[in-house]
Amino acid sequence: MENSHRFFRNIDCRYFPCHQVSDETSFNCLFCFCPLYLVEDCGGRFKMTTKGVKDCTDCKIPHRPEGYDYIIKKLKEANER
Predict the structure, then answer these.
(1) Residues 78, 8: Cα–Cα separation, whole Å
(2) Which of 21, 48, 52, 62 could form a disulfide with 31 if both were Cys (CB 3.0 to 4.6 A apart)?
(3) For residue 50, which phi and psi values (nearest 5 degrees)?
C-alpha cells in the first residue's frame, strides 16, 4: 500500500514493526499509539494486567490497512454514547 491519510508505513522507525506480523508490507504505522486505548469496548484483543492496566500487545487492529476505518467508526460510536 502507498502512504496516505489512511495508511503510513515507517520502515525507518527503530521499532518497526512493533508487533510480530506475517506481512510487513501491509503494516500500518499511522496509529502508533491506538486512539481506542481509553475506549472500554474497543473491540481489540487486549488483556487487563493485575494492576488494572490495558495491555494491547496482542492487538493488531491499528496496524492493519483497514484499521483507519475501524478506528474512526469506533470513535464515532464512543462519542455518541
Answers:
(1) 25
(2) 62
(3) -65, -20
